[in-house]
Amino acid sequence: MKKTIVGLVTSLGLIGLLAGCGTTKLTTTKTNYRQNGMVAVVKGSTTKKADLQYRINHNHFQKATVKDGTYVIQVPTTTNKQTVTVQAKANGKTVQKKVTIAAGTSVGQYAKIAAQYNQALIGMALSKADQTKAQELQKQAAAAKVGQLAPADLMTLKQRQQEVQAAMQQAQQTQKDQLLPTTPKNGVTEWVATKHVTIRGSVDSQDVMGMTLITPVKALKDKAALKDFGTSFALIAQATGADSKKVMSEFSDYTKKNKKGSQTTMKTIESNGVKFNTGFSTSDLYIYITK
């Protein structure tokens, strides 16, 4: 009788083991996800050797990586709600899970943000003399519109326009590596990559869903590098409609308090509805810009 029971228990264990070999596991940490930085991050677990794919709405399936039975899928957010289908194939079986991505809020229209950022960067690259000419040109152009300039002054205005335009074209060439692209690609792409500053952005058509400003931590101790980073940060803040002085002041206070330790802590600075989340890794400083 004892042998029969032992044999039965052994058989049941073997059946359970064989049944387990034929299953395909697939889970998600949530059913609804929201934007985190520039993307929504879908996480879960699956069978270790599963062929994992996902698709956004009704687009084609894309391959996802499985590491030690877990996966992470980054989905660029849009102004509309999205459905993500995660699909795992293993042991001859296919399992699917569906999750939703909440609609995100646009930081602004790309064309407007890029134009304001680039114009400011070019203007700062002009010599002081050319900056003065540009300022005078604006005043004279406004006077010309309401007919307050004499014919001789109109000739001077035309000449000054040519001089300022030539100076701006030259400044544009010197700053070309730091300028935002005229037309960005949809999704998350790199807009600017220089020695001291990297700017990445997420675009849905013309809607900017988020931006990330990155600089090496060591740049905070180098005057030239800090100037480049500070300029990009201030201009991005200004172009998104935030109060750049307020943002930069709060950021400066925060970094002074976090020079030692607590490098992974996050600080949210908010101005006119624009949020700036600050984070550190061991090598880089990140500024996540969203609304």
* SS content category: alpha+beta
Mean pLDDT, all residues: 85
How many helix segments?
6
Low-confidence stretches: 1-20
The major beta sheet can be summarized as:
7 strands, antiparallel
The tally of domains stands at 3
Task: Tell me what you see in this structure.
The chain is of the alpha+beta class and 291 residues long. The protein has 3 domains: 26-101, Immunoglobulin-like (Sandwich), CATH 2.60.40.10; 108-177, no CATH class; 184-290, no CATH class. Helices cover 37% and strands 31% of the residues. Strands 9, 10, 11, 12, 13, 14 and 15 form a 7-stranded antiparallel beta sheet that branches. Strands 2-8-7-4-5 form a 5-stranded mixed beta sheet, with no helix packed on it. Strand 11 and strand 12 form a beta hairpin. The longest helix has 24 residues, at 151-174. The chain starts with a helix and ends with a strand. Keywords: Lipoprotein, Signal. Residues 1-19 form the signal peptide. This is Lipoprotein.
Write the layout of secondary structure elements.
Elements lengths: L1 H20 L4 E3 L3 E2 L5 E8 L4 E6 L5 E2 L6 E7 L5 E9 L2 E9 L6 E2 H16 L2 H18 L5 H24 L12 E7 L4 E7 L2 E10 L6 H17 L4 H14 L9 E5 L2 E7 L3 E7 L1
Parallel strand pairs: 2-8
Antiparallel strand pairs: 1-3, 3-6, 4-5, 4-7, 7-8, 9-12, 10-11, 11-12, 12-15, 13-14, 14-15
Protein name: Lipoprotein
Keywords: Lipoprotein, Signal
Organism: Latilactobacillus curvatus (Lactobacillus curvatus)
